[in-house]
Amino acid sequence: MKKIVTTILGLALGVSAFAQVSIGVEAGAAYGGMTQYLNSADRNATGMVGYKGGVNVNIPLGSMSRFHLQPGVLYRGMLGSESSYYKQSATGSGTPTYESDYRKYVLNQVQVPVYFVFKSGDPEFDYNHFFVGVGPSLSYTVGGRLHQIYSNSLNGSERVRDNNDPLVIGTGEYKDIAPINVDAAVMLGYEDKSGFYIKAYGQLGLLNIHPLADSRNRFNTYEAGLSLGFFFKKFEKYKY
């Protein structure tokens, strides 16, 4: 992950030698979630409100072009979901039994979006403009927590296990979440001549990030949010 971030920042600095690059910061709120398909059961999971902040770079694709490339490095906190599962049955002798499983996943991620952006208006004289962008986003889970309350009853004896621990990141048995995801992302916003901008965005995870990632277990993420930002470097002749 560090190599990817370093490569993107290196490309941005290299392009700045011959292109009018703007470096910006942004922060905002987001609503995101994760589907929970566990042991062939599709749970009714709900999402969470979180936050996002970081830096991005605007690289014009030509001195008078309306098209731009915007890579960035953002930290996303509190992405996750919670769900409850309950099943009641009976033994062969008619003794009632039940199984209950509550799970709350909280993911903290570093995200590296790369947007291909179109900006409206005249590239030379239009100071304020709308913009729209699409592109991929790489997400890497760096931390989080899993709160699980599991209980069952058999022959009148109830057993409860309540664990609230840091996420075990990785793939395979005894892991909680796979580290890497790839998202399809889209954004729409408005930027004024001073460099301030507001944007709405949405993204959908394309990979199954369950640590087993098989036909019986699937996690897929989704996210939407609103961000405010500011580009520090604005040029007199080239307002974009």
Notes on the protein architecture:
With 240 residues, the protein is mainly beta. Helices cover 6% and strands 62% of the residues. It has one helix at 2-15, and strands spanning 22-34, 36-38, 41-43, 48-60, 67-90, 96-119, 129-154, 157-166, 180-191, 196-205, 221-231. The strands form two sheets. It has an eight-stranded antiparallel barrel. It is elongated. The model is unreliable at 235-240 (pLDDT under 50).
Gist?
The protein has 240 residues and is mainly beta. The protein is 6% helix and 62% strand. It has a domain at 2-77 and 108-141 and 181-231: Porin (Beta Barrel), CATH 2.40.160.
Structural class: mainly beta
Q: What name is given to the CATH topology of the domain at 2-77 and 108-141 and 181-231?
A: Porin
* Rg of Cα set: 23 Å
The helix-strand sequence is HEEEEEEEEEEE
CATH hierarchy class name of the domain at 2-77 and 108-141 and 181-231? Mainly Beta
Q: What is the count of helical runs?
A: 1
How far apart the termini lie comes to: 30 Å
Question: Approximately what portion of the residues adopt beta-strand conformation?
Answer: over 45%
Helix content: under 10%
Topology:
Layout: H1 2-15, E1 22-34, E2 36-38, E3 41-43, E4 48-60, E5 67-90, E6 96-119, E7 129-154, E8 157-166, E9 180-191, E10 196-205, E11 221-231
Antiparallel strand pairs: 1-4, 1-11, 2-3, 4-5, 5-6, 6-7, 7-8, 7-9, 9-10, 10-11
Keywords:
mainly beta, 62% strand, 1 helix, two-stranded antiparallel ribbon, 11 strands, 6% helix, eight-stranded antiparallel β-barrel, 240 residues
